[in-house]
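ping. complex inputs:
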Amino acid sequence: MLISKKLPFNYLFSMIKVDVIRVFLFSLTFNFFKFFFNDYLPSLPAQLPTVLGTAISLGLAFKLNHSYDRWWEARKIWGSIVNDSRTLILELKNFINPEVLGFEETKALLRKVAFRQIGWCYAFGESLRGRDSRATILKYLIPAEAGFVLPQSNKNFAMLDLHMQDLKKLLSQQAINPYQQVQVDNTINRLTNAMGMAERINNTVFPVTYRVIIHFFIYLFLIILSLGLVETVGPLEIPILIMTATTFFLIEKTATYLEDPFVDMPTDTPVTSIARAIEINLKQLLEEPNVPEPLAPEDFYLK
Amino acid sequence: MLISKKLPFNYLFSMIKVDVIRVFLFSLTFNFFKFFFNDYLPSLPAQLPTVLGTAISLGLAFKLNHSYDRWWEARKIWGSIVNDSRTLILELKNFINPEVLGFEETKALLRKVAFRQIGWCYAFGESLRGRDSRATILKYLIPAEAGFVLPQSNKNFAMLDLHMQDLKKLLSQQAINPYQQVQVDNTINRLTNAMGMAERINNTVFPVTYRVIIHFFIYLFLIILSLGLVETVGPLEIPILIMTATTFFLIEKTATYLEDPFVDMPTDTPVTSIARAIEINLKQLLEEPNVPEPLAPEDFYLK
Amino acid sequence: MLISKKLPFNYLFSMIKVDVIRVFLFSLTFNFFKFFFNDYLPSLPAQLPTVLGTAISLGLAFKLNHSYDRWWEARKIWGSIVNDSRTLILELKNFINPEVLGFEETKALLRKVAFRQIGWCYAFGESLRGRDSRATILKYLIPAEAGFVLPQSNKNFAMLDLHMQDLKKLLSQQAINPYQQVQVDNTINRLTNAMGMAERINNTVFPVTYRVIIHFFIYLFLIILSLGLVETVGPLEIPILIMTATTFFLIEKTATYLEDPFVDMPTDTPVTSIARAIEINLKQLLEEPNVPEPLAPEDFYLK
Amino acid sequence: MLISKKLPFNYLFSMIKVDVIRVFLFSLTFNFFKFFFNDYLPSLPAQLPTVLGTAISLGLAFKLNHSYDRWWEARKIWGSIVNDSRTLILELKNFINPEVLGFEETKALLRKVAFRQIGWCYAFGESLRGRDSRATILKYLIPAEAGFVLPQSNKNFAMLDLHMQDLKKLLSQQAINPYQQVQVDNTINRLTNAMGMAERINNTVFPVTYRVIIHFFIYLFLIILSLGLVETVGPLEIPILIMTATTFFLIEKTATYLEDPFVDMPTDTPVTSIARAIEINLKQLLEEPNVPEPLAPEDFYLK
Amino acid sequence: MLISKKLPFNYLFSMIKVDVIRVFLFSLTFNFFKFFFNDYLPSLPAQLPTVLGTAISLGLAFKLNHSYDRWWEARKIWGSIVNDSRTLILELKNFINPEVLGFEETKALLRKVAFRQIGWCYAFGESLRGRDSRATILKYLIPAEAGFVLPQSNKNFAMLDLHMQDLKKLLSQQAINPYQQVQVDNTINRLTNAMGMAERINNTVFPVTYRVIIHFFIYLFLIILSLGLVETVGPLEIPILIMTATTFFLIEKTATYLEDPFVDMPTDTPVTSIARAIEINLKQLLEEPNVPEPLAPEDFYLK
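pong. complex structure:
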C-alpha cells in the first residue's frame, strides 16, 4: 500500500513510460506531416474528440470503480481476518475451562493455537503473493503439525483443519461445552470464507476483453485528438497532448494496479504489515514475551 | 473465463463481425452518395452526435455496470460454493465421534459424503451450462444414491437431501450432537442458497427492451456520426467510423457476454476448474489417493 | 418477465405511442412555422441542447439504475423464497423423528406443510399482483386451516403462523428437539422477511417528483433540440427527432416498468412461474405423484 | 410519502419558488443591460456552459444517488421493523408453553407484549419526527410500565428493556426454554439495531459543504448560461432559462428532501401508516377485536 | 461533523486558499501576456476544455463517491457500536440470574461492565483520533482492570478481553447459562468487528496515485480553460476562472476530508458525541445517578 504523500516522480513515471513515449512519437509524426504536407492532413470536425473523450472517460470511470471495489474488498477481507484472528483467541482463552486441563497445559495449548493462527496469517499473505510459505510454517508450527501441513497443496486449509482437530479434542475432554465448540467453529468458518474470498479475487481476472478495448480506445482518442490539435495549435500540441495522455494513462494504470490487490507490488494490500499487527495483538493478549514492533514502511509504501 | 493477456484477434473480431460489416456498408453508401449527389445530403449540426454520444456512452456504462455485477455475483456464488464445500467436510471430519461408528466406517462415511459433494459441484456446473450431468452423478455417487438422484428433475437438490439424510442418521446414532447437526444444517442451507442464487442469475434474462434499445441506439448514433463525418472528412471517414464502431460494439458485446455467466462460452464462470479445485482440496483433506491436477487452461480461456 | 429475443414491434411501440405522437406534432408545428415565418424563430446556440442532453442522460441513468435495483431486488427476494421453501421442507423431512409420530402420520404432516408452503408461494404472488388468492388457498390448504386463513387481511402471514403452530406441536410431542425448532424458526423468519421485503417494494412509490421532472425534462430537451435542428436541417429534422425521442422515451419507459416489479404486466417478476418451480421441487422431494410441468412462456413473456 | 400521480402544481412550485424568482431577476437584469449597454456585455465562449453543465449534472447525480440511498435505507429499516414486529409476536405466540402459565394468563401476556410493540412502532415514528410520544405510550402500555418508560430520555430503548424483562420472567417460569429465549433475544436485538440505524440517518447531516457548493454551482452555471443566451437569443432567453433552472432546482430539492427521510414532511417515510399496518397484523394474529382500518392517504401523500 | 446550515465563510475559504491563489496568479499571468504579446498566445480549440472538463468531472465524481462511502461506512460502524453497546448491557441485565450472585453484587457487576463499555467507546474514539486515552481508561475502569489494560498497545482489545473474562466467571458461577454466554459472546464479537473495521478505514490510505493525478488534472484543466477564456473574454476571465476553480477545488477538498473520517477535524465522525449518547443510554438503563447532558455542538460542528 502506497503511503507517502510525496510519491517519487520516478515511480509514477515508470508506470506509464512506454505509453507516453508512443504518444510522443505519433504526435511528433503528425506535426512533421503538418509541416511538410499540410494539405494532406484531414480536417477533423471538433465534435469527434468530444464524443470519444466522453466515452473514454466513462469507460475509465467504470474500470476505476470496479478496480477500486476489488481493492477495497481485498482490504475488507484482510480486515475480517484481523477480527476473526482476535476473536478466535479471545474465545478460546475465555471458553476453555482451566480446571480440566490444568493451568499450564491450557496455557501451552492456547499458545500453540495462537502461534498457528499467526503463522496462518503470514503464510496466507505469502501464498496470495505467489511466494513460498514453507519457512513461515516451520517457524510458527510445532514440528509434528508442520509435517502434516507441508505436503498439502492448500497449506492454509490444512492449518484450519488443525484448529478444528484441537477443538474436537477439547470437546471430548469436556474442556469446552458443545455450544462453545459450535461458536468457535463459526469463527473458523469465517476464516475459511475469508481465505476463499481472497483466493477468488486473486484467481479471477478482470474481464480481459474490456482491458484490451479500453487501452485501444485511449489510443484512438489520443490519435484523433492529436489530429485535431495539430490543425489549430501547431507544435504546442505536443506538450498539451503529452500531459493529457499522461493523465489518462495514469488513471488507467492506477485502476489496473488496484485490480490485482495481491501481486507483490508497492500498491498491493499490506498483508505482511497486517499479519504483524495480528501477531502483536495475539501475543499481548496471551502475555507472551518478544512482542515485535509494527512493520515500518519501506520508502514510500507499506509491505 | 478468459485468461490470456494476448487475446486472439480472431476471437475479438468474431464477436462483432456482423455489426462492423453493416457499419462499413452504410458508411460506404453515404460516401457514395456524397460523391455523386453532394447537395442532397443534409448538413447535420455538430451538437447532435455529441448529445447522442453522451447518451449512448451512459447507456453502455449502465449496461456494463449491471452486466459486470451479474458476472461478479456469479463468481461470488461459486466462491461461496468453494467455502461451504470445504466447511462441510471440515465440520463433518471434526464433529463425528469416531468411537460411535468405529474408525473404518467413519472414514467410509466421510469419503462418501466428500465424493457426493465433489460430484455435486461438477454436476451443478454442468446443469447451469445446460449439459447432461448424469455421467458425473454415476461417477461420484454410490449406485443406490445415484438411483435416487437420477430420476429427479433437480438432481442437485436431491443430493443435498442425501447430505441431510446422512446427518439425520448420524444424530440418531449419536455420532454427532444436536448442536452439531444444526451447525452442519447451516452449511447445507448455504449450499441450497448458492444453488438457488446461481439458478436465479441463469433464469433471469437481462431486461430485453433495454438490450434492444441500446443496440438500436448505437446504430442511430453511428449513422448520424457518419452523416456528420462524411461532410467534413470525406472518405477518411470510413476508417474512423469503423474504429469508433468497433470500440462501441466491443464494449456492448463484452457486457452482453458478462450478462450470462453460465452459458458455456470462453467468457463464462470457470465452473469446471473451480469444481476441480474443490476436488483437490477435499481429497487432500481426507488423505485420499489419486488427487488430480488443477485444470489446465485451454488455449486462451479456463473452462 | 420478457423472454423473447424478438420482441413484438407492437409491444415496444405501444409503450411510447402517446409521447412519440406528441413529439411528431410539435416538430411538425416548428417546421410549419419555419416555412411560413422563418424570421420569427429564435436561433438557439448550439451548446444548449448539448448541456440539456447531458443532464437528461444522467437523469435517465439515475432513474434506470435505481429502477433496475428495485427489479433485481424483487427477483432476489423471490430467489430467497425458492431457497427457503426448499430449506423448510428439507429440514422438516430430515429433522422429524419418524418413530415418534409413526411413518404414515409423519408423511401426512410433511405433505400438509409442503402443500401449504406451495400454496403460500402462489398466494403471495397473487396478492402482490393485487389479485384474489382465495381459490389458491382453498386448493392447497386443508379446509380447517383455510377457514383460519381466509378471514385475515394478511393471509400469507396467517399461513406462516400455521407453520409455527405445527412446529410447536412437533416440539411438544418431542418429534423434533429444541435446537431443531429454533433452526426451522430461523427459516420461517426468513420467509417472513422475504414477505415484508416484497411488500416494501410494492408499497413504496418511486419518488414521484423525480418521475414528473424527468418526463418534463425530456420534453424540454426535445423541444429545444427540435428548434435547433429545424434551423439547420429542415424537414429531415422530423425523422431524426422522432428516432431520438423514441430512444429516450423507450429508456424512460423501460425504467418505469422496472420500478414496479409486481404489477401484473409482461415485464414483472415471473412469480407464477417461480411458484410452479417450487411446487415441482417440493413434490419431487416428497415423492408425490402429479408433479406438474414447468410453466410455459406465453407469447413473448413468462408469467 | 408522495403517492398521487397528479402532484398539485402548487406543491412543486412552492419547493423552488425563491430560487426561480432569483433566476428570473438576474436574467431580466442581463436582458436590460443588453438592451441599453450592448457593448459592455462580455461574449462568453460556447464551451463554458457546456463544461459547467456537465460538472453540475454529475454533481447533482452524486447528490441524488446518495440522497436516494438514505431514503431507501430509511424505508428498508422500517421494512425490517415490520418483519421483526411480526416475528416477535409469532415467536412468542408459538414458543410459550401455555400449560405453565395457564391459557388466560398466556393470552394476557401476549396481548401486553403485542400492544407494547405496537406502541413502540408509533412512538418510534413520532420520536424520529421530533414529536412528543407520551400520549402514545400511555395509550398502548399498562400504567406501571408507562411509569417506567416515560421518565427516560430514550423511551423506545426502555420499551425493549421491558420486552427483555418479560423474556427473563418467562424463562425463570420455564414457560420458554433457553434456546427460545436466545432466539427471541435475537429478534429484539434486530429491533435495537433498526432503532439505532434510523437514529443514525436522522442524526447524520448530509455533508454540509457539499450541499452549499452544489447550490452555489447551479447559480454559477445559470448565470453563465444566461450571459451566453442573452447574446444569441435575446428576450426569449428568459423562459428558456427559467425552464432550465426549474428543472435543475427541482432535481436539487427532490434530492434534499430525500436526504432527511424522517422530517415530518409529505415526502418522508410513511411511519404512521407502517405502524398502523403492524397494528392490524398483530391484532389479527392474536384475534383481537377492534382492528383498525389501514391509514388513508391525505390529499397527495401518505403520512 | 459539520452541523450549521450557515457555514462560516472563513472555514470554506481556508480549505482552498492556497489553490485559489495559485489559479489567480496564473490567470493574471496569462492576461498580462495577452495584453503585451497577444500574438504569442496559442489559440486553443474549443473542444479541449470540454473534453478535459468531462473527464475531470467524472474523476471527481469517482473520488467523491468512494470518499462518501468511506465516511458513511465510518458512521455506520459507530452506529453499530451504539447498537451493540446497548445490546450488551440489555442482555447482561436480563440474562444474569440475580438469585445466584445476590441483588447487590449483580448490580455492582452490571455497573462495572457498563462503565467499562462507556469507557471503551470514549477511548476508542480517542485512539482513532490519535489521542491519548489513558485518562479515560483510568476514569471508567476500576484500578485493577486499568492496570491490566494500560500497558497493552491495543487497549480497546484488552477491554473486550475483560468483558469475556466476566462472562466466563458468570458461566462458572452458573449465573448465566451456556446459550446466554454464547449469545453475549456474539455481541462482543460484533464489537471486535466494529473495532477492526474502524481501524481498517483509519489505516488504509485512499489510493495515493489517484489523489495526486486528480489534483494535477484539475490544474491542467484550469490552465487550458484559462488559455481559452483569455482569448475570448479578456480580463473578465479572471473572476470566472476563480469561481469555477473555487467550485472544483471545494468539491475536491470535501471529498478529501470525507476520505479520512477519524482525523480530529470539524468534518470527522462525531465519536465523542456518540460515546456521550451511549453513556446516557446505559446509565439510564441501569438507573444510575449523574446522567450527563448530550454533547452540545461547538460553533458550527459536533465533536
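Chains B and D do not touch (no CB pair under 8 Å).
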